[in-house]
Amino acid sequence: MRNRKFNLAIKVWLTATYMLIFIPIFVIIMMSFNETRFGMLPFIFTTRWYVMLFEESNLFPATLLSLELSGTVALTSMFIGTLTALGAQYVPKKVSDALMGVAQLPIIIPWLVQAIALLLLFNLTGLGRSYMGMYLGNLIVVLPYCIMMVLARFNEADRTPEDAARTLGASYPRVFKDVIFPMLVPGIISGGLMSFVVCFNAFAMQFFLAPFGVRTLPMEIFTLIRVGYEPDMNALASIIMTVTIVLVVMLNKLGYSANRLMKSK
């Protein structure tokens, strides 16, 4: 009897949690197709706000800029993060622990503090508020996530094939190409995706380091919230959430396929 009540309580709790997560998402998607400007009932279907998003809204150019920035930062973090995680495996443990401690500081220090500090530093070096400054600031913020993702993949992977390849006389470039890199691919992609998402939402860094007159999507949304809400924001949010869900599903399938492949080998 107690087990039944406990199981029922767990199911109710899980249901309430999932409803809390997904109902707002459902409401945003539904309201993006609603004719009324402020999402009021009755519901009248329309695609007007999607047309407005692509033809008239300032959100679309800001989104393209954010995608370009986030993609560039994510690719760079994947490269640097992989090399850093790889190097941490082949240095003394004390050195590795010290490096990882320093690498994780951007996660601990508030972004607002980092953004102000970087702005002061860039002003002293002549870089100031610029595209390069914004790029470097966002890269500093996201790099720890990629490093940790690749390290996690290193720690959970079976290192026996690597040792066997070395024993058989394979050179390190060959071992990396045929054994280590395929093993790390899920972690690298996960780190890149995490870096992309974090950079896409790094409002503080972009607000303080972006060139004057340049606005990324978080900055544009912040401006619109202050001057007035537009329904095309719902349309953009729906597109972003749909793409995010698709990417997460693909990433999970990739990780599952990679695990099966490594086990089969």
From TrEMBL:
Keyword terms of this UniProt record: Cell membrane, Membrane, Transmembrane, Transmembrane helix, Transport
Main localization category: membrane
Keyword field contains Transport: yes
SUPFAM superfamilies listed in its UniProt record: MetI-like
Membrane topology field: Multi-pass membrane protein
Name of a matching Pfam family: BPD_transp_1
Gene3D superfamilies cross-referenced by the UniProt entry: MetI-like
GO cellular-component term (any): plasma membrane
GO terms for biological process, alphabetical: transmembrane transport
Transmembrane segments: 12-33, 59-86, 98-122, 134-152, 184-209, 235-256
Subcellular locations according to the entry: Cell membrane
Protein name: Spermidine/putrescine transport system permease protein
